[in-house]
Amino acid sequence: MTDLSRHDPGRTCSLVASLAGAPSRSVEELRLLNKVNGALEVRADIVGDLDPATLRDHVSGELVYSLRGMGAGGVFAGSGEQREQRLLAAAGHYDLIELEIGRDTTSRVLAAIPPHQRIVAWYGLSAAGGASGMDLAGLREKFSRMAEIPARQYLLVTHAASAEHALVPLRLLRSLARADVTAFSVGETGACGRLLAPWLGAPVVYGQIGGRAGEAPPIDRLIRDYPFPDVPPVRQVFGIAGRSVHMSLAPRMHNSAYRAIGYPGLYLPIATRDFLTTWRVMANGLAGLGFPLGGGTMVAPYKEAALRLAEVTSGAAASSGAANVLVRTETGWRAHTTDPFGVVGALGRAGIQLTGRKAAVVGCGGAGRGAAAGLLRFGVTPTLVNRGPDRGMRAARLLGLDYVPLHRFVPGDYSLIVHATPVRDELLFGLDRLARDTTLVDLPYGRRQTALVTAARRRRLRVIDGWEVLRIGVARQFRLMTGRSMPDPHSLEHVR
């Protein structure tokens, strides 16, 4: 079998941006798409039949026409005659026309649209009724029928109700070893497979422009977070696991660093609501595809589960009762936590002296416990603060620290406060009585400032935001997973 994925450093893939909103609001994304000579897919079922001549004024790549029906995840509900008329009209102006197998592959349509202009597509998006597309034999049979129709490209999209289902399209790609078939899943862990598919021969990666957030990643993230359109050699896969990780900037930081030092790795999002099962399935499945899972980052609420999964645990992870990094070793998974080092490292880089500080950590989840453990290692004994008493008292017993309920917390008693809850848009405690030399560390990060950072800067307090902590934490995660030093994470100011 020809390996299309690992040993050809010259391979590239095409990026296709599905236009699901007004093109006038997508100028920035279209510019990015043009930089990589990507194609624009017009979702005519959503945006209507746009003027292709006007689109060509803004798009340097090919134009793709898609009139996706409701059974294919689209919204077109017209008659068969209306559908045929629109497809045939589009064929005179678009470079590629997506034809749904069976519905559109009639003798009249095939006579009017030549093979080089066809994308023959099948969507098995019913979680209950799509079982024929969920196993490899069923998917191979489906493709065999599709391949009877000559086309430039073939597209198969399944619905994944589990991590095991999400791996099936990747297994199909590996077994076919063709360069004209794209296959992936939507649903559970689907994004991971969509992004890995080009290393198994898929010629296309689909992103999205405009419209509401959907299954496809925004095209700007697809271009900025991954090496596309290049498909460089990959020897090991890493990932970030959580319930919702699609907006995480960790893939951008890790993948940018891999490219900078020539490391053959790929960092992917692994979205799941069943971490333990998904991690085990993905580890076994990816290894079977030739891409061993070398490790990953865990975000809440999976930091305690990551600790249970490991055969060996670092001292910092054991003391905080949570892990945010798993690394594969010869004897199994080793659990680490970088939370202590992110907070203490950010304080050190800012020149904040810890000696003599009276500290409090607000939030007793994995991040809060890690921050408290880090302060303890450097001679600061923090007080733990939490809204819920059960988690707060459990953390206090684990770390041997005092616990104060949030409603009894007096911020003015402390000169160092670490906020380690996920709350971004409200203040959990007041800042009015804080001394001017108080330092605040706020762990949440995002495109907008948190309420705490905004209020602290307004009062001209010393504040370290989540970005600074993130960069230091990611650099340590990078070294744990790869054994290599990350290029200076503080030079990655664009990573926001």
From TrEMBL:
Pathway: Metabolic intermediate biosynthesis; chorismate biosynthesis; chorismate from D-erythrose 4-phosphate and phosphoenolpyruvate: step 4/7
Pfam family, one: Shikimate_dh_N
Protein name, per record: Shikimate dehydrogenase substrate binding N-terminal domain-containing protein
Family annotation (InterPro entries): Aldolase_TIM, Aminoacid_DH-like_N_sf, DHquinase_I, NAD(P)-bd_dom_sf, Shikimate_DH-bd_N, Shikimate_DH_fam
Domain Shikimate dehydrogenase substrate binding N-terminal: 240-326
Keyword Amino-acid biosynthesis recorded: yes
One annotated GO biological process: chorismate biosynthetic process
MF GO annotations: 3-dehydroquinate dehydratase activity; shikimate 3-dehydrogenase (NADP+) activity
